[in-house]
Predict the structure.
Amino acid sequence: MNNIIINIINELGKTISKEMIVFIISLLPILELRGGLIAASILNIPYLKAAIICILGNILPIPFILLFLNKIFNLMEKWKPTKKLVKFFRDRAHKNKAKIDKYGFWGLVLFVGIPLPGTGAWTGALVSSVFGMDEGKSALAIFIGILLAFVIMSIVSYGIIGNIIR
């Protein structure tokens, strides 16, 4: 993941500010806040500024996913070239549903908050949306999960481990 982040920093750094780079990385699926905090650490952005940028960047797409993803998927399923893509995402949601269902609200919080491959706010919102979970509860669980991921990744990016890597 670090190589991807460094490549993004190098490419985007030619045209936009380092804060905007961190914001964009935090918006992206897979990288999200986790990648944003690593990028902010590499770019020497002060911790509190990085916190605000990364949290806002990670939260911004979530309401749109929760509210519109199923409608978009339903449209995409009607068009043959995108039907397989929708199937891929629905299958991914099904694969992760059991993890979330086992513990309900707190399962979604942990799924979003514990930084493991294939987890995060985007995937949590995908699962929630595909299975018609309550948008309000899902949004709250995802927000708490983002804050949990922030705490964990702060330790990694700016804390003890971050200082060892530098």
About this structure: Residues 80-113 form the longest helix (34 residues). The mean pLDDT is 90. The chain has two domains: 2-59+154-165, 62-149. The chain has nine helices and no strands.
